[in-house]
Specification:
The chain has 365 residues and is of the alpha+beta class. The chain has a 5-stranded mixed β-sheet. A hairpin with an 8-residue loop joins β6 and β7. The protein is globular. The chain starts with a helix and ends with a helix.
């Protein structure tokens, strides 16, 4: 774990002894905090700490911007969750937005660039219609398909010029090796209300949220750890009772993600002093040995690895060919967005360019 992450973790945990920080060091720490998504959180944690004035001053603009942005994000989220519920759509607010309003002392302490919603596959079309009614338009910035991706993005700009992005998921992870480990039907029964997000808003239970945080950290961001993700895990773990820890152990084992959860908890313990009962650690470690997702713990998983794994796990040649086609020939709108042109006659050349450059990146990975 990088020294800067450990240093920031000690500051957040209140374990750092302070002397006055020189301005140049404060600037470096502020940049690192921004990279790790903990600027506002660190600004709050350092309130009243002797010797931290220079660093806190560096963090103040980011904290103020977070407070201001949250006003507009909050209003938008309430509108969306209430509109979805009114249309009979079962939606879970997940990841950062869910944690911001249920785990953090103030929602602006948890930065995020988008809001993630999880809905049943059969309600995706209806949910997309509601989002359009709320002023959102579908984004073409991501490749979509029935196999290559399990989400659709929507975006809008409000009257104040604040941009909002919604990622509408029917599965929370794209790699097939973990795509079905956290299904809507697994998370909905234990979901809880989140009144601050709307009268009908629902978020996963603590165990479900903890599992999502641990899986997302490795399945989507392996090799690019950020302290904010570990802080999420730390807060969720701190709220577990003895029964909650047993529930988490059983859930992780049943979904074959014990290893991913254990790795997240151990990383949070190293950086932030996260609690991890010894018997739970031993049980998760034992279960992890035979899990397919253990590949994320054994080595760096490349895009080529994911593709080969996806092809092996698909049950028919038709499905395998479809997956390859979705990778090689994404929607025209995606190509237009990617290359910044609407000229259709250029499409063959643009597809060819994407294929050649993409292939070289996959080989290098």
């Amino acid at each position: 774990m990088p020294d800067v992450m450990l240093a920031l973790g000690r500051m957040l945990a209140g374990a750092e002894s302070w002397n006055e920080v020189p301005p140049e060091v404060a600037a470096q720490l502020a940049t690192a905090a921004e990279d790790h998504g903990v600027s506002a959180l660190l600004w709050s944690a350092l309130a009243g700490v002797d010797g931290a004035d220079a660093l806190r001053q560096q963090l103040t603009p980011t904290a103020r911007a977070a407070v201001a942005r949250e006003v507009f994000v909050h209003q938008d989220l309430r509108t969306i969750t209430e509109a979805l519920a009114a249309d009979g759509i079962h939606a879970l607010v997940v990841k950062g937005s869910a944690l911001a309003y249920t785990c953090y002392p103030q929602p602006w302490l948890r930065p995020r660039t988008d809001t993630d919603l999880l809905v049943p596959l059969e309600q995706v079309t209806a949910a997309a219609r509601v989002l359009r009614q709320c002023g959102y338009t579908r984004s073409d910035a991501t490749n979509t398909g029935s196999l290559v991706s399990h989400q659709v993005s929507f975006e809008r700009e409000d009257d104040a010029g604040v941009g909002h992005v919604i990622d509408l998921h029917w599965k929370l992870a794209n790699p097939r090796i973990v795509a079905d480990t956290l299904r809507f039907d697994d998370l909905w029964p234990s979901s809880r209300s989140a009144p601050d997000l709307g009268s009908a808003a629902r978020v996963p239970g603590v165990v479900g949220s903890l599992a999502i945080a641990c899986v997302h950290r490795l399945a989507h961001h392996q090799g690019h750890d950020r302290l904010v993700w570990l802080y999420d895990i730390h807060l969720l773990a701190a709220s577990l009772s003895d029964d909650g820890w047993e529930e988490m152990r059983d859930f992780a084992r049943s979904r074959e993600i014990a290893g991913l959860c254990l790795d997240g908890l151990r990383a949070a313990r190293a950086a932030l002093g996260c609690e991890l009962p010894a018997d739970i650690e031993a049980a998760l470690d034992e279960a992890a040995a035979g899990e397919p997702s253990r590949i994320y713990l054994e080595r760096q998983v490349t895009r080529s690895d994911v593709l080969v794994s996806d092809l092996k796990l698909l049950r028919s040649w038709n499905a395998r060919l479809r997956l390859l086609r979705e990778h090689v020939l994404p929607p025209v709108a995606f190509i237009h967005q990617r290359y910044g042109t609407r000229t259709r006659m250029l499409l063959p050349a643009l597809y060819l360019h994407r294929l050649i450059t993409g292939a070289s990146k996959w080989v290098r990975s």
